[in-house]
Design goal:
Blueprint lengths: L1 H43 L20 H25 L3 H22 L5 H25 L10 H19 E2 L4 E2 L11 H40 L4
Antiparallel strand pairs: 1-2
Amino acid sequence: MEDKIKYQSMQYDLHRLVVMAIFFGALIAAMGVLISLWAEYQNIGSAVFNRRSDLLGDYNNAKLAFVFNIALMTTGICIMLAMLGLYLLKQGFFSHYLSLIGGWVGMSVLLMGMFPVNYLDMHRLVSTSYLLGTVLMYFLCITDRFSQNSICKGPIFLLSILGFITASALVVQLDWSTLDFVPCEHPETSPCWVAITMWIQTNVVMLWCLSFAWTIRKIAIKNYRELSQRYLAGEQ
């Protein structure tokens, strides 16, 4: 029983690593986006929502681009740490493949911060990698929902469906010959659907991460309490 307690303690520590890394990653990303967005809002008003979100990292035109890009790099590192913890937990098929896909997404986020739109060719490559990674992440979560022990229930499942729709819409709008989106013709007077979809996708990703972290936290607490109760009951 002592060995089980030690093992469970290690598992609980890994659960906490996953939860805290994802939570702080999402928080840092949200702060970076909000600060950069507010700075641009002071200049162009509500038109900022009709521009692609990755333009907040443009060093030539965005006032606080460095804040946005540093937030992306930090978030990418947090996601990779969380996925390492999830991989080490070895909770089965879903967590194994989610940790690999999540690591891919985290690396792409890190590289997007390192190579903003000023490094256009590299930015196109890593942003496409991020987009495809999120599509696979949502798809995996949706399909896992139909397994008996799925953690993709409630808010995570709904966010996965919404995220899959918005990410797929961006994939459809992507020009694969250039790995970029066709510029909006009149963004000042008409809605730019690429930009709007991208903003929705950005918010869905952050909400998905927070929901996932909360779910992992509940699982960790439940497992730890169950083992503690068995230990106190004298179970061998």
